[in-house]
Amino acid sequence: MDTFVMQSQARQLLHNKFVLVLGGSVQRSMYKDLVLLLQRDKFLTLPQLKSKGEFSFEQDRLVEGGRLGPLTNGTGYREVRQYHSDHHLLRFYFLTRIYSPYMESILEDLREGLKPDVVIVSSCVWDITRYGPECLEQYKENLHKFFSQIKALVGRDCLMLWTLAMPLAKKIKGGFLVPEVSHLAPSLCYDLIEANFYCSQLADAYGLDVLDLHFHFRFSLQHRMPDGVHWDALAHRRISSLLLGHAADAWGVHLHAPPLSSRTSSSGLQRRLWTTPQT
């Protein structure tokens, strides 16, 4: 995809849709960019990308956790956000593990409440670093538990999209990388590739769609933040475009380009700013 999805396209595609986003800090920024895109053709600012747990972001609201509780880097951190307009509903749950008692409570929310039209989910880096020496094997078991239960809960028409974890730098620093697991950092970018391969195969076997963000961004590392984990606003708008393009394909919808008169001068700048180095 060489161009970004515009606000008018996003609003039309997600009209009367409930989009559920599950994951860590990268998925939180995915949620934020979608919330912003539904309202105007602007990029996330650096403070918006860096903020976590704020009471409100672009007319969304903090439902649980975040600044309503302790802002920690622990595996017990919670953050639930929701954006609601007349014709759009987006909800985000922060995850530190793909299956846990907390995930069971999320699944119970889905069982009793409104069923989503789209589920965008990923959980990997926390899973393979913060849960002891057997965490990779436990991650594989937990993926089975999650995939089997989510499939049984959502409707047949729900688009379930597993996004593979994005490339990590060899030298990283991040909230999940507490001192007791810092020794894992040098090999984590390779462990991530192994974990991505396994969960992509398993997600496909359970009938989930898979979006390989590791592949899409492998030559776009100039858009990765200095911490080696997170990504800039341009990367997140491209992720939104990939997500919405995938949904459009799944639903048989053609994303018509908006009329020239409705395109702002910044849209051309957006296309020029997104560059992929030659290999």
Automatic annotation (TrEMBL):
<comment type="similarity">
    <text>Belongs to the PC-esterase family.</text>
</comment>
<protein>
    <submittedName>
        <fullName>PC-esterase domain-containing protein 1A-like</fullName>
    </submittedName>
</protein>
<feature type="compositionally biased region" description="Polar residues">
    <location>
        <begin position="261"/>
        <end position="279"/>
    </location>
</feature>
<feature type="region of interest" description="Disordered">
    <location>
        <begin position="260"/>
        <end position="279"/>
    </location>
</feature>
<dbReference type="InterPro" id="IPR036514">
    <property type="entry name" value="SGNH_hydro_sf"/>
</dbReference>
